[in-house]
Automatic annotation (TrEMBL):
Database matches in InterPro entries: HAMP_dom (IPR003660), HATPase_C_sf (IPR036890), HATPase_dom (IPR003594), His_kinase_dom (IPR005467), PAS (IPR000014), PAS-like_dom_sf (IPR035965), Sig_transdc_His_kin-like_C (IPR004358)
HAMP domain: residues covered: 63-116
Protein name as it appears in the record: histidine kinase
Signal peptide location: none
Broad class of where this protein is predominantly found: membrane
Taxonomic placement: Bacteria, Pseudomonadati, Pseudomonadota, Gammaproteobacteria, Lysobacterales
SUPFAM superfamilies found in the cross-reference section: ATPase domain of HSP90 chaperone/DNA topoisomerase II/histidine kinase, PYP-like sensor domain (PAS domain)
Subcellular location: Membrane
Amino acid sequence: MSNRSWRWNYESRILLGALFATLPALIALAAALWLATNDVTRTVAIWGGVAVLTIGLSIVVRRNAVYPLYTLSNLLEALREGDYSLRGSRARRGDAIGEVVLEINALAQTLREQRLAVEEKSALLAKVIATLDIAVLAFDADGHIKLANPAAERLLAANANELAAQTALSLGLQDCLAITDVRVLERSFASGSGRWEVRHARFRENSRSHDLLVISDLSRALREEERLAWQRLLRVLGHELNNSLAPIRSMAGTLSKLTDREPLPDDWREDVQGGLRVIGARAEALARFMARYTQLARLPPPSPRAIEFGALAHRAALLEQRVVVSIDAGPALQLDVDPDQIEQALINLIKNAADAALDGGARVSLRWRRNDAELHIEVIDDGPGLPPSENLFVPFFTTKPDGSGIGLVLARQIIEAHGGTLTLENRHDARGCIARLHLPAPAL
Protein backbone atom coordinates (compact mmCIF):
# COMPACT_ATOMS: atom_id res chain seq x y z
CA MET A 1 0.00 0.00 0.00
CA SER A 2 1.45 3.37 -1.03
CA ASN A 3 1.92 6.29 1.34
CA ARG A 4 -0.82 8.31 -0.41
CA SER A 5 -3.43 5.59 0.34
CA TRP A 6 -3.32 6.04 4.13
CA ARG A 7 -2.36 9.71 4.45
CA TRP A 8 -5.12 11.70 6.16
CA ASN A 9 -6.77 14.55 4.38
CA TYR A 10 -6.47 18.19 5.41
CA GLU A 11 -9.74 18.25 7.37
CA SER A 12 -8.78 15.15 9.40
CA ARG A 13 -5.39 16.65 10.20
CA ILE A 14 -7.04 19.89 11.40
CA LEU A 15 -9.39 17.87 13.68
CA LEU A 16 -6.59 15.67 15.00
CA GLY A 17 -4.41 18.74 15.57
CA ALA A 18 -7.17 20.39 17.62
CA LEU A 19 -7.52 17.23 19.72
CA PHE A 20 -3.81 16.97 20.32
CA ALA A 21 -3.77 20.64 21.27
CA THR A 22 -6.09 19.84 24.20
CA LEU A 23 -4.20 16.70 25.21
CA PRO A 24 -1.88 18.37 27.81
CA ALA A 25 -4.85 20.03 29.47
CA LEU A 26 -6.72 16.72 29.55
CA ILE A 27 -3.76 14.98 31.13
CA ALA A 28 -3.44 17.70 33.73
CA LEU A 29 -7.18 17.53 34.43
CA ALA A 30 -7.06 13.76 34.74
CA ALA A 31 -4.20 13.96 37.23
CA ALA A 32 -6.04 16.54 39.31
CA LEU A 33 -9.20 14.51 39.36
CA TRP A 34 -7.36 11.31 40.29
CA LEU A 35 -5.68 12.98 43.19
CA ALA A 36 -8.82 14.83 44.37
CA THR A 37 -11.30 11.97 44.52
CA ASN A 38 -11.62 8.25 44.34
CA ASP A 39 -15.22 8.38 43.13
CA VAL A 40 -15.10 6.48 39.84
CA THR A 41 -18.63 7.49 38.77
CA ARG A 42 -17.94 11.16 39.22
CA THR A 43 -14.60 10.81 37.44
CA VAL A 44 -16.18 9.07 34.45
CA ALA A 45 -18.92 11.70 34.26
CA ILE A 46 -16.42 14.52 34.33
CA TRP A 47 -14.24 12.77 31.77
CA GLY A 48 -17.24 12.21 29.50
CA GLY A 49 -18.28 15.85 29.66
CA VAL A 50 -14.71 17.03 29.00
CA ALA A 51 -14.41 14.63 26.04
CA VAL A 52 -17.67 15.78 24.47
CA LEU A 53 -16.77 19.45 24.94
CA THR A 54 -13.30 18.85 23.52
CA ILE A 55 -14.60 17.02 20.44
CA GLY A 56 -17.26 19.72 19.86
CA LEU A 57 -14.71 22.52 20.07
CA SER A 58 -12.36 20.59 17.77
CA ILE A 59 -15.12 20.21 15.21
CA VAL A 60 -15.76 23.97 15.37
CA VAL A 61 -12.05 24.63 14.89
CA ARG A 62 -12.02 22.22 11.95
CA ARG A 63 -15.02 23.94 10.35
CA ASN A 64 -13.56 27.41 10.81
CA ALA A 65 -10.28 26.28 9.26
CA VAL A 66 -11.81 24.39 6.33
CA TYR A 67 -14.66 26.73 5.32
CA PRO A 68 -12.38 29.54 3.99
CA LEU A 69 -10.46 26.95 1.99
CA TYR A 70 -13.68 25.85 0.31
CA THR A 71 -14.33 29.52 -0.47
CA LEU A 72 -10.88 29.81 -2.03
CA SER A 73 -11.49 26.62 -3.99
CA ASN A 74 -14.76 28.01 -5.38
CA LEU A 75 -13.06 31.27 -6.35
CA LEU A 76 -10.22 29.48 -8.13
CA GLU A 77 -12.67 27.16 -9.88
CA ALA A 78 -14.58 30.20 -11.14
CA LEU A 79 -11.33 31.67 -12.49
CA ARG A 80 -10.50 28.39 -14.19
CA GLU A 81 -13.94 28.33 -15.80
CA GLY A 82 -13.52 31.92 -17.01
CA ASP A 83 -16.04 33.46 -14.60
CA TYR A 84 -14.29 36.59 -13.32
CA SER A 85 -17.37 38.11 -11.66
CA LEU A 86 -17.29 35.96 -8.49
CA ARG A 87 -15.66 37.65 -5.48
CA GLY A 88 -14.79 36.59 -1.94
CA SER A 89 -16.45 38.66 0.81
CA ARG A 90 -15.57 39.70 4.36
CA ALA A 91 -11.86 39.59 3.61
CA ARG A 92 -9.53 41.99 5.37
CA ARG A 93 -5.89 42.84 5.49
CA GLY A 94 -3.79 41.39 8.28
CA ASP A 95 -5.60 38.08 8.11
CA ALA A 96 -3.84 35.18 6.37
CA ILE A 97 -6.94 33.86 4.62
CA GLY A 98 -8.20 37.38 4.04
CA GLU A 99 -4.95 38.32 2.30
CA VAL A 100 -5.34 35.32 -0.03
CA VAL A 101 -8.98 36.18 -0.77
CA LEU A 102 -8.11 39.80 -1.53
CA GLU A 103 -5.32 38.72 -3.88
CA ILE A 104 -7.67 36.33 -5.68
CA ASN A 105 -10.24 39.12 -6.00
CA ALA A 106 -7.55 41.41 -7.45
CA LEU A 107 -6.47 38.64 -9.83
CA ALA A 108 -10.08 38.14 -10.95
CA GLN A 109 -10.44 41.88 -11.61
CA THR A 110 -7.18 41.95 -13.59
CA LEU A 111 -8.17 38.93 -15.65
CA ARG A 112 -11.61 40.45 -16.27
CA GLU A 113 -10.07 43.69 -17.52
CA GLN A 114 -7.57 41.83 -19.68
CA ARG A 115 -10.28 39.63 -21.17
CA LEU A 116 -12.41 42.71 -21.87
CA ALA A 117 -9.44 44.39 -23.59
CA VAL A 118 -8.76 41.27 -25.65
CA GLU A 119 -12.41 41.01 -26.65
CA GLU A 120 -12.50 44.68 -27.66
CA LYS A 121 -9.31 44.30 -29.69
CA SER A 122 -10.62 41.10 -31.25
CA ALA A 123 -13.86 42.85 -32.19
CA LEU A 124 -11.89 45.73 -33.72
CA LEU A 125 -9.64 43.31 -35.59
CA ALA A 126 -12.66 41.39 -36.87
CA LYS A 127 -14.23 44.62 -38.15
CA VAL A 128 -10.98 45.71 -39.79
CA ILE A 129 -10.57 42.33 -41.50
CA ALA A 130 -14.23 42.41 -42.58
CA THR A 131 -13.86 45.85 -44.17
CA LEU A 132 -10.60 45.05 -45.97
CA ASP A 133 -10.78 44.86 -49.75
CA ILE A 134 -8.08 42.17 -49.52
CA ALA A 135 -8.85 38.47 -49.15
CA VAL A 136 -7.71 37.04 -45.80
CA LEU A 137 -7.84 33.28 -45.27
CA ALA A 138 -6.67 31.23 -42.28
CA PHE A 139 -6.22 27.43 -42.44
CA ASP A 140 -5.88 25.09 -39.50
CA ALA A 141 -3.25 22.37 -39.17
CA ASP A 142 -5.41 19.99 -41.24
CA GLY A 143 -5.76 22.46 -44.10
CA HIS A 144 -9.39 23.42 -43.40
CA ILE A 145 -10.52 27.03 -43.55
CA LYS A 146 -11.14 28.51 -40.12
CA LEU A 147 -11.40 32.18 -41.13
CA ALA A 148 -12.43 33.91 -44.35
CA ASN A 149 -13.35 37.58 -44.56
CA PRO A 150 -15.99 38.94 -47.00
CA ALA A 151 -13.30 39.79 -49.58
CA ALA A 152 -12.20 36.13 -49.51
CA GLU A 153 -15.81 35.04 -49.97
CA ARG A 154 -16.08 37.28 -53.05
CA LEU A 155 -12.73 36.02 -54.35
CA LEU A 156 -13.78 32.37 -54.06
CA ALA A 157 -17.45 33.02 -54.95
CA ALA A 158 -18.71 31.21 -51.85
CA ASN A 159 -20.22 32.20 -48.53
CA ALA A 160 -18.73 31.47 -45.11
CA ASN A 161 -20.85 28.35 -44.54
CA GLU A 162 -19.72 26.85 -47.84
CA LEU A 163 -16.08 27.65 -47.15
CA ALA A 164 -16.14 26.19 -43.63
CA ALA A 165 -16.01 22.63 -44.93
CA GLN A 166 -13.43 23.35 -47.66
CA THR A 167 -9.70 22.71 -47.67
CA ALA A 168 -6.90 24.47 -49.52
CA LEU A 169 -6.68 21.51 -51.88
CA SER A 170 -10.39 21.54 -52.72
CA LEU A 171 -10.25 25.28 -53.38
CA GLY A 172 -7.14 25.02 -55.54
CA LEU A 173 -5.03 27.13 -53.18
CA GLN A 174 -2.27 24.61 -52.51
CA ASP A 175 0.11 26.54 -54.77
CA CYS A 176 -0.49 29.66 -52.67
CA LEU A 177 0.34 27.76 -49.48
CA ALA A 178 3.61 26.67 -51.09
CA ILE A 179 4.78 30.30 -51.28
CA THR A 180 7.42 31.06 -48.68
CA ASP A 181 6.86 34.81 -48.35
CA VAL A 182 5.42 37.11 -51.06
CA ARG A 183 4.85 36.47 -54.75
CA VAL A 184 2.93 38.07 -57.59
CA LEU A 185 0.93 35.48 -59.55
CA GLU A 186 -0.97 35.50 -62.81
CA ARG A 187 -3.84 33.13 -62.15
CA SER A 188 -7.58 32.67 -62.03
CA PHE A 189 -9.91 32.44 -59.06
CA ALA A 190 -13.64 31.83 -58.99
CA SER A 191 -14.25 35.58 -59.17
CA GLY A 192 -11.99 36.14 -62.18
CA SER A 193 -8.41 36.19 -63.39
CA GLY A 194 -5.66 38.78 -63.14
CA ARG A 195 -2.49 39.63 -61.26
CA TRP A 196 -2.50 38.90 -57.55
CA GLU A 197 -0.06 39.54 -54.75
CA VAL A 198 -0.09 36.50 -52.47
CA ARG A 199 1.42 36.62 -48.97
CA HIS A 200 1.81 33.44 -46.96
CA ALA A 201 2.73 33.27 -43.28
CA ARG A 202 2.52 30.69 -40.52
CA PHE A 203 1.23 31.12 -36.97
CA ARG A 204 0.66 28.78 -34.03
CA GLU A 205 -2.51 28.19 -32.07
CA ASN A 206 -3.00 25.51 -29.42
CA SER A 207 0.58 24.37 -30.11
CA ARG A 208 -0.30 23.55 -33.75
CA SER A 209 0.91 25.25 -36.90
CA HIS A 210 -1.65 27.19 -38.99
CA ASP A 211 -1.42 29.03 -42.32
CA LEU A 212 -2.44 32.58 -43.18
CA LEU A 213 -3.03 33.74 -46.76
CA VAL A 214 -3.47 37.37 -47.82
CA ILE A 215 -4.41 37.80 -51.49
CA SER A 216 -4.50 41.29 -53.06
CA ASP A 217 -5.90 42.10 -56.48
CA LEU A 218 -3.20 44.09 -58.25
CA SER A 219 -4.99 44.29 -61.59
CA ARG A 220 -7.57 46.84 -60.49
CA ALA A 221 -5.01 49.04 -58.75
CA LEU A 222 -2.67 48.82 -61.73
CA ARG A 223 -5.48 49.64 -64.12
CA GLU A 224 -6.43 52.67 -62.05
CA GLU A 225 -2.82 53.86 -61.87
CA GLU A 226 -2.42 53.23 -65.57
CA ARG A 227 -5.57 55.20 -66.29
CA LEU A 228 -4.38 58.14 -64.19
CA ALA A 229 -0.93 58.01 -65.79
CA TRP A 230 -2.48 58.06 -69.26
CA GLN A 231 -4.71 60.96 -68.27
CA ARG A 232 -1.73 62.99 -67.07
CA LEU A 233 0.36 62.10 -70.11
CA LEU A 234 -2.42 62.76 -72.60
CA ARG A 235 -3.19 66.07 -70.93
CA VAL A 236 0.40 67.21 -71.41
CA LEU A 237 0.65 65.67 -74.90
CA GLY A 238 -2.59 67.34 -75.91
CA HIS A 239 -1.32 70.69 -74.66
CA GLU A 240 1.93 70.32 -76.61
CA LEU A 241 0.22 69.14 -79.79
CA ASN A 242 -2.34 71.94 -79.61
CA ASN A 243 0.46 74.47 -79.24
CA SER A 244 1.82 73.30 -82.60
CA LEU A 245 -1.34 72.35 -84.49
CA ALA A 246 -3.38 75.43 -83.60
CA PRO A 247 -1.06 77.93 -85.37
CA ILE A 248 -0.56 75.49 -88.27
CA ARG A 249 -4.33 75.18 -88.71
CA SER A 250 -4.80 78.94 -88.40
CA MET A 251 -2.01 79.74 -90.84
CA ALA A 252 -3.23 77.12 -93.33
CA GLY A 253 -6.69 78.73 -93.28
CA THR A 254 -5.19 82.18 -93.79
CA LEU A 255 -3.10 81.02 -96.75
CA SER A 256 -6.11 79.24 -98.25
CA LYS A 257 -8.14 82.44 -98.15
CA LEU A 258 -5.21 84.38 -99.57
CA THR A 259 -4.77 82.09 -102.56
CA ASP A 260 -8.53 82.14 -103.27
CA ARG A 261 -8.54 85.91 -103.82
CA GLU A 262 -8.77 87.19 -107.36
CA PRO A 263 -6.66 88.96 -108.30
CA LEU A 264 -3.87 88.04 -105.94
CA PRO A 265 -2.44 90.97 -103.98
CA ASP A 266 0.97 92.20 -104.93
CA ASP A 267 2.59 90.98 -101.71
CA TRP A 268 0.94 87.56 -101.73
CA ARG A 269 4.27 85.81 -102.25
CA GLU A 270 5.78 87.33 -99.10
CA ASP A 271 2.64 86.42 -97.13
CA VAL A 272 2.70 82.83 -98.35
CA GLN A 273 6.40 82.48 -97.63
CA GLY A 274 5.95 83.92 -94.14
CA GLY A 275 3.04 81.57 -93.47
CA LEU A 276 5.01 78.59 -94.71
CA ARG A 277 7.89 79.56 -92.45
CA VAL A 278 5.51 79.61 -89.47
CA ILE A 279 4.12 76.20 -90.48
CA GLY A 280 7.65 74.84 -90.93
CA ALA A 281 8.78 76.20 -87.55
CA ARG A 282 5.85 74.63 -85.73
CA ALA A 283 6.30 71.35 -87.59
CA GLU A 284 9.98 71.37 -86.62
CA ALA A 285 9.01 72.03 -82.99
CA LEU A 286 6.60 69.10 -83.15
CA ALA A 287 9.38 66.92 -84.59
CA ARG A 288 11.68 67.91 -81.71
CA PHE A 289 8.90 67.09 -79.28
CA MET A 290 8.55 63.58 -80.75
CA ALA A 291 12.33 63.15 -80.65
CA ARG A 292 12.30 63.97 -76.93
CA TYR A 293 9.47 61.49 -76.41
CA THR A 294 11.52 58.82 -78.19
CA GLN A 295 14.54 59.65 -76.02
CA LEU A 296 12.48 59.20 -72.87
CA ALA A 297 10.78 55.99 -74.01
CA ARG A 298 14.00 54.34 -75.24
CA LEU A 299 16.29 54.95 -72.30
CA PRO A 300 18.59 51.89 -72.26
CA PRO A 301 19.28 49.98 -69.04
CA PRO A 302 22.38 51.12 -67.12
CA SER A 303 25.79 49.71 -68.01
CA PRO A 304 27.57 50.12 -64.67
CA ARG A 305 31.30 50.33 -64.21
CA ALA A 306 33.56 51.66 -61.47
CA ILE A 307 33.99 55.45 -61.56
CA GLU A 308 35.23 58.15 -59.19
CA PHE A 309 32.15 60.19 -58.33
CA GLY A 310 33.93 63.44 -57.50
CA ALA A 311 35.43 63.79 -60.98
CA LEU A 312 32.04 63.07 -62.58
CA ALA A 313 30.32 65.69 -60.40
CA HIS A 314 32.94 68.36 -61.22
CA ARG A 315 32.60 67.63 -64.92
CA ALA A 316 28.80 67.99 -64.83
CA ALA A 317 29.06 71.27 -62.88
CA LEU A 318 31.56 72.79 -65.35
CA LEU A 319 29.12 72.31 -68.21
CA GLU A 320 26.80 74.97 -66.73
CA GLN A 321 28.17 78.34 -67.90
CA ARG A 322 25.32 80.73 -67.07
CA VAL A 323 25.92 80.66 -63.31
CA VAL A 324 28.78 79.57 -61.09
CA VAL A 325 28.08 76.20 -59.50
CA SER A 326 29.82 76.00 -56.12
CA ILE A 327 30.88 72.52 -55.11
CA ASP A 328 31.00 71.33 -51.51
CA ALA A 329 32.92 68.13 -52.16
CA GLY A 330 32.26 65.11 -49.99
CA PRO A 331 34.50 62.10 -49.49
CA ALA A 332 36.19 60.50 -52.48
CA LEU A 333 34.52 57.22 -53.33
CA GLN A 334 34.09 54.74 -56.14
CA LEU A 335 30.63 53.98 -57.51
CA ASP A 336 29.47 51.16 -59.76
CA VAL A 337 27.12 53.13 -62.03
CA ASP A 338 26.57 54.02 -65.64
CA PRO A 339 28.66 57.23 -65.77
CA ASP A 340 26.98 58.60 -68.89
CA GLN A 341 23.50 58.27 -67.43
CA ILE A 342 24.41 59.58 -63.94
CA GLU A 343 26.22 62.54 -65.52
CA GLN A 344 23.17 63.27 -67.69
CA ALA A 345 20.93 63.19 -64.61
CA LEU A 346 23.23 65.64 -62.78
CA ILE A 347 23.39 67.90 -65.85
CA ASN A 348 19.59 68.02 -66.04
CA LEU A 349 19.25 68.85 -62.35
CA ILE A 350 22.00 71.50 -62.43
CA LYS A 351 20.41 73.04 -65.54
CA ASN A 352 17.01 73.22 -63.82
CA ALA A 353 18.65 74.76 -60.74
CA ALA A 354 20.44 77.33 -62.92
CA ASP A 355 17.19 78.20 -64.72
CA ALA A 356 15.56 78.84 -61.35
CA ALA A 357 18.58 80.71 -59.95
CA LEU A 358 18.52 83.20 -62.83
CA ASP A 359 15.27 84.49 -61.30
CA GLY A 360 16.93 84.79 -57.88
CA GLY A 361 20.46 85.38 -56.69
CA ALA A 362 22.07 83.21 -59.41
CA ARG A 363 23.58 80.84 -56.84
CA VAL A 364 23.68 77.07 -57.35
CA SER A 365 25.55 74.60 -55.17
CA LEU A 366 26.30 70.91 -55.46
CA ARG A 367 27.28 68.80 -52.47
CA TRP A 368 27.39 65.15 -51.49
CA ARG A 369 27.86 63.10 -48.34
CA ARG A 370 28.09 59.42 -47.57
CA ASN A 371 25.70 57.81 -45.08
CA ASP A 372 26.35 54.12 -44.40
CA ALA A 373 25.60 52.34 -47.69
CA GLU A 374 24.13 55.39 -49.46
CA LEU A 375 25.47 58.42 -51.27
CA HIS A 376 23.38 61.55 -50.61
CA ILE A 377 23.65 64.23 -53.31
CA GLU A 378 22.00 67.67 -53.14
CA VAL A 379 21.59 70.29 -55.87
CA ILE A 380 20.52 73.58 -54.27
CA ASP A 381 19.38 76.84 -55.86
CA ASP A 382 18.10 80.18 -54.58
CA GLY A 383 15.32 80.58 -57.14
CA PRO A 384 11.60 81.10 -56.55
CA GLY A 385 11.04 77.52 -55.34
CA LEU A 386 8.78 74.76 -56.60
CA PRO A 387 5.50 75.68 -58.30
CA PRO A 388 2.30 74.43 -56.63
CA SER A 389 1.85 71.47 -58.96
CA GLU A 390 1.75 67.68 -58.71
CA ASN A 391 2.91 67.27 -62.31
CA LEU A 392 6.61 67.99 -61.85
CA PHE A 393 7.53 64.42 -62.80
CA VAL A 394 4.88 64.09 -65.53
CA PRO A 395 6.56 63.76 -68.95
CA PHE A 396 6.52 66.99 -71.02
CA PHE A 397 5.06 69.08 -68.20
CA THR A 398 7.00 72.31 -67.82
CA THR A 399 6.52 75.76 -66.34
CA LYS A 400 9.27 77.32 -68.49
CA PRO A 401 8.42 78.91 -71.86
CA ASP A 402 11.15 76.99 -73.69
CA GLY A 403 11.26 73.92 -71.45
CA SER A 404 11.11 70.37 -72.80
CA GLY A 405 9.40 68.78 -69.81
CA ILE A 406 11.61 65.68 -69.78
CA GLY A 407 14.65 66.78 -67.73
CA LEU A 408 13.27 65.85 -64.33
CA VAL A 409 11.52 62.75 -65.64
CA LEU A 410 14.67 61.50 -67.32
CA ALA A 411 16.77 62.22 -64.22
CA ARG A 412 14.41 60.32 -61.94
CA GLN A 413 14.18 57.43 -64.41
CA ILE A 414 17.99 57.19 -64.45
CA ILE A 415 18.33 57.37 -60.67
CA GLU A 416 15.61 54.78 -60.05
CA ALA A 417 17.18 52.48 -62.65
CA HIS A 418 20.30 52.56 -60.45
CA GLY A 419 18.27 51.62 -57.36
CA GLY A 420 18.13 55.16 -55.95
CA THR A 421 15.57 57.89 -55.36
CA LEU A 422 15.11 61.51 -56.44
CA THR A 423 12.97 64.02 -54.54
CA LEU A 424 12.36 67.76 -54.80
CA GLU A 425 11.40 70.10 -51.99
CA ASN A 426 11.51 73.76 -51.12
CA ARG A 427 14.27 74.98 -48.84
CA HIS A 428 13.38 75.68 -45.22
CA ASP A 429 16.34 77.93 -44.43
CA ALA A 430 16.05 80.27 -47.41
CA ARG A 431 14.38 80.88 -50.75
CA GLY A 432 14.88 78.16 -53.34
CA CYS A 433 14.66 74.44 -53.98
CA ILE A 434 16.68 71.31 -53.12
CA ALA A 435 16.94 68.26 -55.36
CA ARG A 436 17.98 65.25 -53.27
CA LEU A 437 19.42 62.10 -54.82
CA HIS A 438 20.12 58.89 -52.95
CA LEU A 439 22.30 56.29 -54.67
CA PRO A 440 23.52 52.95 -53.32
CA ALA A 441 27.19 53.07 -52.37
CA PRO A 442 29.60 50.21 -51.64
CA ALA A 443 29.94 49.35 -47.98
CA LEU A 444 32.89 50.74 -46.09
